[in-house]
Design goal:
Largest sheet: 5 strands, antiparallel
Number of helices: 9
Strand order of the largest sheet: 13-12-11-10-17
Mean pLDDT: 84
Bound molecules: zinc ion
Number of strands: 17
Distance between the termini: 24 Å
Radius of gyration: 26 Å
Strand content: 15-25%
Number of domains: 2
């Protein structure tokens, strides 16, 4: 289990939440790092100490590694920063669209500074590396092209900051030499021009122009970042399942994944995913998912359509070993439901993916033990 899932954030009252994927968190940390190293803000901004704190909390999350459905409780100031940084993405993108964005490159060796247009640099770099690139596409537009519309958070802004901060952009990576000393290493920073007074703004965060009062936030249509906790939890669960699928035995097939995904809500914790068979079949075509509130199965083989099903644990009245009930199957798992029906799985081979905090043994005995623990349970902690 890796931590490549993401994390939930919530307000103190828990009435609003936000899920950020790992990539978003990485970019958020990077962006915060850039601002912390040069905390210059044009216009009003929340307390910089809150940004320090948020950065520290994100570092701690990263260190903890394991994804946890327990959300990180954020202070109003931290949320204000998250919202502001989200807004900055849109502001920077809009300024780029208006051709008001430049990179300020400073030669690491001699200090010679030059202002470059990322569009030009991109075109030059493309020519130099002979890559087939659309020279009219700006650096930023390209970054926008591959970001996940579900998580349009900070990606573009952080990309610009990354290009700016670490010298790995086409502008700085070998594509340019210093006019004065022929050096090839540059420290760079994003510069924008104020749409109000055309002043050059070098701050790492632009909110309002100190010269003319221009409100940069006018460039960014307000979007609602925070939402209902169950929606955020749902997004987390989907990301967790997706991550689990990457190490799932033989892979989670497309329709199988769709069936499991469809059954998930924002009111449960994912526990485990394993592959098994059903009695009477030779192959192991079933993906069996355990959550805190239900079991869900989806069967897909090369030659058959996908079938799926499941039931809430509160409807499971007994868990037995089909082998011991003399039905002739190998050791397996039989789940007996309150309606009188039952569902039987077999051919567990000790391999599976633990999606929660607990280690699970995925042989038939371990899976039965897990099912017995969950049997009869109604919805737990998740809210
Ligand atoms: Zn130089
Ligand atoms: Zn201005």
């Amino acid at each position: 289990m890796t931590s490549a899932v993401g994390h939930l954030f919530t307000t103190e009252t828990g009435n609003e939440a936000l899920f950020l994927a790992t990539a978003d968190i990485a970019r958020l940390r990077e962006t915060i790092g850039t601002i912390r190293s040069r905390p210059e803000v044009a216009g009003p901004a929340p307390d910089i100490a809150a940004l320090e704190e948020l950065g520290q909390e994100l570092d701690d999350l990263e260190e903890a590694g394991r994804p946890s459905p327990a959300p990180l409780v954020t202070t109003p100031a931290a949320r204000a920063w998250i919202e502001l940084l989200h807004e900055q993405v849109r502001i920077i993108a809009e300024l780029d669209g208006q051709k008001r964005l430049r990179l300020h490159l400073t030669c690491s060796a001699c200090g010679n500074a030059v202002l470059v247009n990322p569009v030009d640099e991109q075109a030059k770099a493309a020519r130099r590396t002979q890559e087939r690139r659309d020279a009219t596409t700006s650096l930023l537009a390209e970054d926008f092209a591959d970001f996940d519309p579900d998580h349009p958070f900070l990606s573009a802004f952080a990309s610009v900051m990354r290009h700016a901060g670490q010298g790995d952009s086409p502008a700085a990576a070998g594509a340019r030499t210093c006019e004065s000393c022929r050096g090839t290493d540059f420290e760079s920073a994003v510069v924008v021009f104020c749409p109000g007074c055309r002043a050059r703004r070098t701050e790492t965060v632009v909110v309002a122009c100190p010269d003319c009062g221009y409100d940069f936030r006018l460039l960014a249509p307000k979007t609602e970042l925070w939402g209902a906790p169950d929606e955020a939890r749902h997004a987390f669960n989907l990301a967790l399942l997706s991550e689990g699928a990457s190490s799932f035995e033989s892979g989670l097939w497309r329709k199988q994944r769709a069936a499991l995904t469809e059954a998930l809500s924002g009111h449960e914790d994912l526990i485990a995913l394993c592959r098994c068979g059903i009695p009477g079949e030779v192959g192991r075509y079933v993906a069996l998912l355990f959550t805190s509130t239900q079991f869900v199965w989806a069967r897909e083989s090369l030659v058959s359509g996908t079938t799926s099903g499941g039931a809430p644990w509160r409807e499971v009245v007994a868990v037995t070993n089909p082998h011991s009930s003399a039905t002739g199957f190998t050791s397996g798992l039989a789940l007996h439901l309150s309606g009188g029906t039952s569902m039987t799985f077999n051919d567990f081979r000790g391999v599976g993916v633990a999606l929660g905090e607990h280690e699970i043994s995925f042989d038939a005995e371990g899976v039965r033990r897990l099912a017995k623990d969950l049997q009869g349970k109604t919805a737990i902690s998740a809210s």
